[in-house]
Amino acid sequence: MHNFDFVKPSTVADAVSALSGEEAQALGGGQTLLPTMKQRLAAPETLVSLSGIDEMKGVCSNDAGEICVGGGTVHAVVSKETASSYPGLSALAGKIGDPAVRNRGTIGGSLANNDPAACYPAAALGSGATIVTNAREIAADDYFQGMFTTALEEGEIITEVRFPVPEKAAWQKFVQPASRFSLVGVYVAKFADGVRVAVTGASEEGVFRWSEAEAALSSNFSADALADLSVSADGMISDLHGTGAYRAHLVKVLTGRAVAAA
Question: CA-to-CA distance for 123 and 94, rounded, in angstroms?
Fold first, then answer.
C-alpha cells in the first residue's frame, strides 16, 4: 500500500471541500477501493472517508411514499430497515456478499462504483430510483452509463437514493461462488403503469433494462409471457465463469423465476 493522507469529515459540505483537492477520492465502505489500492491499481493522494457523516445514514420514507436510503447506509441496515416497507429491496441487500461485506459496504459506494455485476444497480434501475447527490437529482435511467461509468461528476457525492415502492418486486441472483457477485442477477418490479426488468452481471455495458420482457410482462405478469422471448448473446460478458450465450440464457431463466417469486 502506498502512502496517502486520510480525512474524515462530519458533514457533506466538508466532504465536498476535501474532495476538491488534487488526487482526492471518496471512501465509502472501502469494499472495492481498498483492495484496488492494495493491488496498486489506484493511488489517490487523499482518502476522504464518508463514514462519519451521519446525515448520509439511515432509511426513511418521504411524503411521496418513496423509501429514502442515505448514501452512507450499509447493506445490512438497508436489508433490516426495508424488510416490511420494501421486501424486494430488503432481500437484495441481504444477499450481497457475506456478513462482513454487508456491515461495511454502503449503497452509495456500490452505485458510485457501478460494478457490472453489482446488485444495487439492478435494484435502482428496476425500481426507477432517483440518485440524489450533493448537487442534483439523477433518474436511474440517466445515471448508469456503462461498465464502471455513471453520470457523477468529479467530486460529486451520492447522499441519498429514493426508491418508489412497486406493487410487487423480486430479485433473483445466480451467484458466482468465489466472489458472491452476480454471474447474472435480475430485478423485476411491477408498478401500476407497467413492469421494469433490470439485469446485472450479464452485459459488457453493465446494468440494463430488458425492454422486450417489460412489454410482455406489462400485458401479462406471468412467467409464461416470456416463453417466446430470447436474449441475444451479442455484447454479453464471456469469461471463465460462463459464456455470453450462457449468461443470455440465464437472463430469461432468472426473469421467469423473479416473476414467479413476485
Answer: 13
Confidence check: pLDDT of 1 > 80: no
- The Cα-based distances of 156 to 12, 24, 133, 238 in angstroms read 10, 12, 7, 33
Mean of pLDDT values over 142-171: 97
Q: What is the pLDDT of residues 21-34, one digit of tens each?
A: 889 999 999 988 99
The grid coordinates of residue 112 equal 458510485
Reading the block at residue 147, the C-alpha cell is 461498465
CB neighbour class for 202 (10 Å; exposed up to 12, middle 13-18, buried from 19): buried
Q: CA–CA separation, 17 vs 155, rounded Å?
A: 9
Distance, in Å, from the CA atom of 140 to the CA atom of 43, rounded to the nearest integer, reads 29
Closest CA to 112 of 103, 120, 100, 101: 120
| This prediction's pTM | 0.95
pLDDT exceeds 80 at position 174: yes
What mean pLDDT is predicted for residues 210-239? 97
| Residue 241 burial (C-beta neighbours within 10 Å; 0-12, 13-18, 19+) | middle
CB count within 10 Å of CB 167 equals 11
Amino acid in the structure at residue 157: I
Degrees, nearest 5: CA angle 203-208-210: 105
3-state secondary structure of 195: strand
Residue 219 has pLDDT above 90, yes or no: yes
pLDDT at 2: 83
